Amino acid sequence: MNILVTLDRNYLRPLRVMLGSLFFNNPGAAFHIYLIGDSLTQVDLADLSALCGTRHTLHPLTVPETLFKEAPVVRYYSRAMYYRLLAAQLLPKDLDRILYLDPDILVINPVQPLYETNLGSFLMAAATHSGLFSGISDQVNRMRLDNYEAEAYFNSGVLVMNLAAMRHAVRAEDIYAYAREHADLLILPDQDILNGLYGARILEVDDSLWNYDARKYERYWMTSQGERDMDWVMEHTSILHFCGKNKPWSQGYMGYFAALYKHYQHLLERQ
Amino acid sequence: MNILVTLDRNYLRPLRVMLGSLFFNNPGAAFHIYLIGDSLTQVDLADLSALCGTRHTLHPLTVPETLFKEAPVVRYYSRAMYYRLLAAQLLPKDLDRILYLDPDILVINPVQPLYETNLGSFLMAAATHSGLFSGISDQVNRMRLDNYEAEAYFNSGVLVMNLAAMRHAVRAEDIYAYAREHADLLILPDQDILNGLYGARILEVDDSLWNYDARKYERYWMTSQGERDMDWVMEHTSILHFCGKNKPWSQGYMGYFAALYKHYQHLLERQ
């Protein structure tokens, strides 16, 4: 399975935890980890390569400067925000599918069923957190992002990418134009651009399985009439996503999944 | 390292989780698991033996009927309550040390430092939960159990046993006599007898490392002025003990360590 991660050095520790949990909870699977990140040192790369061991393979990619010479800088965001949107251009041409994963994720069960999602002509598969009444409604997002075809507002932390389709449909100049036009309205620029430009061509997958918002245990529990309790989550959920500002690697982070995350973090550091 | 477990069939699932977590978090260690339990079937034993794999060894022990012919039955407790107290008599004579572990335990870090505790002439090493203001005070326990030499009331869920010393000091007839005399005052009979008869000969070890009461995260945090937060626990604590009536394998169990326990439980069932 192909996995895409894009990051800067500040997320190296969580990236190790994410990858370590991915490897551990997918026994028997061999992963190709494609890494787009500017600021990693040779030591960082050697460390990640050691984590991959002999079963998995790390592929660090270099980003051609030319691809970004027209890119607008939206507020304080760096060009790294475009990496996942432009993944199809940056990845080797012989890859037709890849699973993008944010570093603030803990994988606790196999991801193969997600990876094998039948994408048809969809550009991607992704989950929405909007059934959880999170802040901004789908309706407001449709207006804000000027996209009335989109069914929902997708979270961009977990994306199954149909690279063949994306190579035809996703163009850097569209993305830059959209970013320029909507600069003042963008809240999470990469996620907003993804939804604004391509929301109607994203296949929805179940967030409680593939992009579980770790802040919202009670809401999943309530909206499922108590079915999705902690036993259910540990048995069925594959991807816990620690969305929001409070991150589980911070000292003092608490919550239902704090011990689980920090145990993995410690295991990865103990190695 | 030698490990002692005593159980009935109702605790087979938790026992698997306890042993699985012990093996996983003590990489490189080879364990000899001595099992005293009456009601296990051949299938149960084969299942536990499979869990031990090639690295660890299961030693099921048979209990001689004669040892218990004088044993009083205290209320609804079975003779199994005496197994851990009489471990030195039941185990092979060539063992000089063993670590007893309750099945309602999750091991999250190595146990070797505990195992190697310098016991001197102490019969055992154990932790007390009394610094956590749990229900009954040391003073009341000293009176109740008629033992004014005991420094503290020890929890009997984790015991490093000095078998050589116990073979001389621990006698079945003393235990039965004590059980008969104090029958009406015993709350947790095996733990009470342990403290009542041998409390003064038990070496105290740090419960926050070796017998962490999983119900009491906040109290450990408070009594340490915030030092023992979740990061500290995941890094330093080796043995999480799920004391009390609410057990982490129950549907609906919640708490700071619920996700961690249930994840291990699921891993052990996924195998």
Which SSEs are present, and which pair or pack?
The structure is a homodimer of 271-residue chains.
Chain A: E1 2-6, H1 12-24, E2 32-36, H2 42-52, E3 57-61, H3 87-90, E4 97-101, E5 105-107, H4 112-115, E6 124-128, H5 138-144, E7 154-162, H6 163-169, H7 172-181, H8 189-198, E8 202-205, H9 207-210, E9 212-213, H10 217-223, H11 230-236, E10 239-241, H12 258-270
Parallel strand pairs in A: 1-2, 1-4, 2-3, 6-8, 9-10
Antiparallel strand pairs in A: 4-7, 5-10, 6-7
Individual helix count of chain A: 12
Q: Unreliable runs of chain A, pLDDT <50, ≥5 residues?
A: none
From the spread of the alpha carbons, the general shape of chain A counts as globular
Give the largest chain-chain interface (CB within 8 Å): A-B, 21 and 21 residues
State which percent range the strand residues of chain A make up. Answer: 15-25%
Number of DSSP-assigned strands of chain A: 10
